[in-house]
Design a protein that fits this description.
7 helices, 289 residues, seven-stranded mixed β-sheet, alpha+beta, Class II glutamine amidotransferase, glutamine amidotransferase, Ntn_hydrolases_N, Glutamine Phosphoribosylpyrophosphate, subunit 1, domain 1, GATase_2_dom, single chain
């Protein structure tokens, strides 16, 4: 199953070396089990998006470790890919960039021919460069955001509502970041998604956790004020909360998460693992603990 991780440090630029490289089950270690690509998205001090990604596992790329130690940003978005659609190529590797925003997705859905026609109608088909359902979903959100006058939350709500009403859906969990904002959606309940708020509270007594086969495990000795979103709890801190199905989370530079539930409770056509082809099903099945 693909892995998502995002960090928002508010107005302060931060590093993420620990979870990228040094945690017991870091992003680099995750790539040994999710081998189809690794990507990290950040923003420059001027607010321009910057994506470091490769269609090979991070542990195979020596440059990944060198670059990860120097990455610094107000927001981070990372993805470890287990492909459900599309070849193992650079253009199919997350995160994707459109209109100055970054996007990463964990899930699967069908009806791509119908979605492609929708993108043609809305004028964003040209934004898609690869083969994935994920990049097409992002292009739909970009189109709906433009129609909503730049309101990303409204764009997400309209795009996901259209997909839920018109396409067969297994999971649409995703994260979008800019230099100052973060949006995260869990929809419907096929995969878990967690959020943790750290607002100046001191770290508990240091804990050393055993790595597991299904986690990007994180414990930093100095988290500071920030909000984290991930596909799993990354340590045993009680501040981790499971995002509710249909919940859209928005975090701005003040680091105060706001939640809304603008999406229908369930897709019109809800897929199960048994409905997916063998490749997609393998990519969506969680690893055993």
């Amino acid at each position: 199953m693909c892995r998502l991780f995002a960090l928002h440090a508010g107005r302060n630029r931060a590093k993420a070396t620990f979870w990228l490289l040094d945690a017991p089950d870091s992003l680099r270690e995750q790539s040994r089990r999710e081998p189809d690509g690794t990507g990290v998205g950040t923003f420059t001090p001027e607010g321009r998006p910057k994506v470091e990604k490769q269609a090979v596992a991070a542990w195979e790329d020596r440059a990944f470790a060198r670059e990860a130690r120097h990455l610094e940003s107000t927001t981070f978005l990372a993805h470890v890919r287990y492909a459900s659609t599309g070849a193992h190529t650079f253009v199919n590797t997350h995160p994707f960039e459109q209109a100055g925003r970054l996007f990463a997705h964990n899930g699967a859905f069908g009806g791509l021919d119908r979605l492609e026609q929708r993108l043609e109608d809305l004028g964003t088909a040209s934004l898609v460069r690869g083969e994935t359902d994920s990049e097409r979903l992002f292009a739909l959100i970009t189109a709906e955001t433009r129609i909503a006058g730049g309101d990303v939350g409204a764009g997400i709500a309209h795009a996901v509502a259209w997909v839920a009403e018109n396409l067969p859906v297994f999971s649409l969990n995703f994260i979008i970041t800019t230099a100052t904002e973060l949006w995260a959606l869990r929809y419907p309940d096929s995969h878990e998604l967690y959020v943790r708020e750290d607002h100046g509270a001191p770290e508990a007594e240091p804990r050393r956790l055993d790595a597991t086969s299904q986690r990007i495990t994180v414990r930093s000795p100095d988290m500071g004020d920030r909000v984290l979103v991930a596909t799993e709890r990354m340590d045993d801190d009680p501040r981790w909360r499971l995002v509710e199905p249909g919940e859209l989370l928005h975090v701005g530079p003040d680091l105060v998460p706001a939640s809304s539930r603008p999406i229908p409770r369930a897709p019109a056509i809800q897929l199960s693992l048994a409905d997916l082809d063998a490749r997609a099903a393998a990519s969506q099945r969680p690893h055993p603990a």
